[in-house]
């Protein structure tokens, strides 16, 4: 039996990852350390709530003592660090917590893992620290070209800068101590359990509630979209086969403009649920400060070296996703109250 410490496992990608791992393997138990910020939700883990191989601990990754206790109690084989403040717009309003969690939290996890794993003659090669990072650390692309693992880091938002700083600390633990690490940098994810502050679930939620659909700037910024289960399979591949110290970009060449995404959601909902929903709901609003124009991942390395490729096309994934939110409207309604209402009003005013 292997034991993974998954941080941020009550968030969007972390919960999908835990469900994927427990469904796929019988010999892995997961300690899920999540502080349950506004973005953490144990409802995301209903599918595995009675599974004894999922052990939840309400823990802040910055808390040395609490993380230390987890390592004392369990023989952790692998840390998968999803825990983060993850929303660019929130980082523009309030960067401080991004530095605290994303930078200092990652450093704390590295340090506790190092103490537990380091032996006299170095590290046990079976142990691994996986840092879940993002394509945003590379900055923004023009109309051509892609981010490779060798692209220089050039983050723009406070969120992206905090993730880039964390990546560099992880790299330093490899360069200095030869700690067994990998960094993964994935493009925009979409799928079930994504918090409705992010573009796709926000647009779906607003369509379902017949509210205006905010599109920043000219709507022509491009993001490279990956279905969350494909991301989870890629991380699994990196844990099992990734060469120590390496960075792996993850993406599936699914670049779309934001306005294309918004129109796709409207069309699906109009054809399948409510034909009164139409493009009149679109509202162009003030652009995001420092808005990156285009992201595009070159996934050649993970494809060639680890044999991973995405299995869900964008057309299939977006349909599955919209359908999931329609079926799970109660989950959305549960979130879209309280803190979310205040956030929405602060961000979008009276749309
Ligand atoms: P999310 O915001 O949905 O979830 C983050 C989780 O971390 C939440 O459950 C939250 O409670 C927890 N958390 C926050 N601060 C914590 C702390 N101090 N201690 C313990 N737990 C804490 O985020 P997500 O979209 O699932 O992203 C997960 C990771 O993947 C992040 O590191 C993010 O940078 C990265 N990533 C996300 C995307 C994307 O498109 N969503 C793409 C690439 C990389
Ligand atoms: O209301 C909106 N209107 C709009 O036009 C929102 C919320 C977003 N947008 C635009 C901004 C972006 O160009 O849509 C695009 C996607 O925005 P987000 O969903 O906020 O994602 P992004 O900023 O691209 O960052 C995401 O991908 C990389 C995740 O939030 C990060 O955690 C991840 O690292």
UniProtKB/TrEMBL annotation:
<feature type="domain" description="NAD(P)-binding">
    <location>
        <begin position="5"/>
        <end position="321"/>
    </location>
</feature>
<dbReference type="GO" id="GO:0009225">
    <property type="term" value="P:nucleotide-sugar metabolic process"/>
</dbReference>
<dbReference type="InterPro" id="IPR005888">
    <property type="entry name" value="dTDP_Gluc_deHydtase"/>
</dbReference>
<keyword id="KW-0520">NAD</keyword>
<dbReference type="Pfam" id="PF16363">
    <property type="entry name" value="GDP_Man_Dehyd"/>
</dbReference>
<dbReference type="InterPro" id="IPR036291">
    <property type="entry name" value="NAD(P)-bd_dom_sf"/>
</dbReference>
<keyword id="KW-0456">Lyase</keyword>
<dbReference type="GO" id="GO:0008460">
    <property type="term" value="F:dTDP-glucose 4,6-dehydratase activity"/>
</dbReference>
<protein>
    <recommendedName>
        <fullName>dTDP-glucose 4,6-dehydratase</fullName>
        <ecNumber>4.2.1.46</ecNumber>
    </recommendedName>
</protein>
<comment type="similarity">
    <text>Belongs to the NAD(P)-dependent epimerase/dehydratase family. dTDP-glucose dehydratase subfamily.</text>
</comment>
<dbReference type="InterPro" id="IPR016040">
    <property type="entry name" value="NAD(P)-bd_dom"/>
</dbReference>
């Amino acid at each position: 039996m292997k034991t993974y410490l998954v941080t941020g496992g009550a968030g969007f990608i972390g919960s999908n990852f835990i469900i994927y791992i427990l469904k796929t393997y019988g010999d892995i138990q997961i300690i899920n350390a999540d502080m349950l910020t506004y973005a953490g939700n144990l409802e995301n883990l209903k599918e595995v709530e009675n599974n004894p191989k999922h052990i939840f601990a309400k823990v802040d990754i910055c808390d040395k003592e609490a993380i230390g206790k987890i390592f004392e109690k369990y023989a952790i084989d692998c840390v998968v660090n999803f825990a983060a403040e993850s929303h660019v717009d929130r980082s523009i309003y309030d960067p401080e917590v991004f530095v605290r969690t994303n930078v200092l939290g990652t450093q704390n996890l590295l340090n506790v893992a190092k103490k537990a794993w380091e032996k006299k003659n170095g590290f046990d090669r079976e142990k691994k620290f996986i840092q879940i990072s993002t394509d945003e650390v590379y900055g923004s692309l023009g109309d051509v070209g892609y981010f490779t693992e060798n692209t220089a880091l050039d983050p723009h938002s406070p969120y992206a800068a905090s993730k880039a700083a964390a990546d560099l600390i992880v790299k330093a633990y490899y360069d200095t101590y030869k700690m067994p690490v990998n960094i993964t940098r994935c493009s925009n994810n979409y799928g079930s359990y994504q918090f409705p502050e992010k573009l796709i679930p926000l647009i779906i939620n607003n369509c379902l509630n017949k509210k205006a659909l905010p599109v920043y700037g000219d709507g022509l910024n491009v993001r490279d979209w990956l279905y969350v289960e494909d991301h989870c399979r890629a991380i699994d591949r990196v844990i099992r086969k990734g060469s120590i110290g390496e960075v792996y970009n993850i993406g599936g060449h699914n670049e779309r403009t934001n306005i294309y995404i918004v129109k796709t959601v409207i069309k699906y909902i109009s054809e399948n649920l409510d034909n009164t929903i139409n493009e009149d709901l679109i509202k162009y609003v003030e652009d995001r400060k420092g808005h990156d124009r285009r992201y595009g991942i070159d996934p050649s390395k993970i494809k060639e070296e680890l044999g991973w490729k995405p299995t869900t096309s964008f057309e299939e994934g977006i349909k599955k996703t919209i359908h999931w939110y329609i079926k799970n409207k109660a989950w959305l309604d549960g979130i879209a109250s309280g803190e979310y209402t205040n956030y929405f009003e602060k961000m979008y005013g009276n749309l």
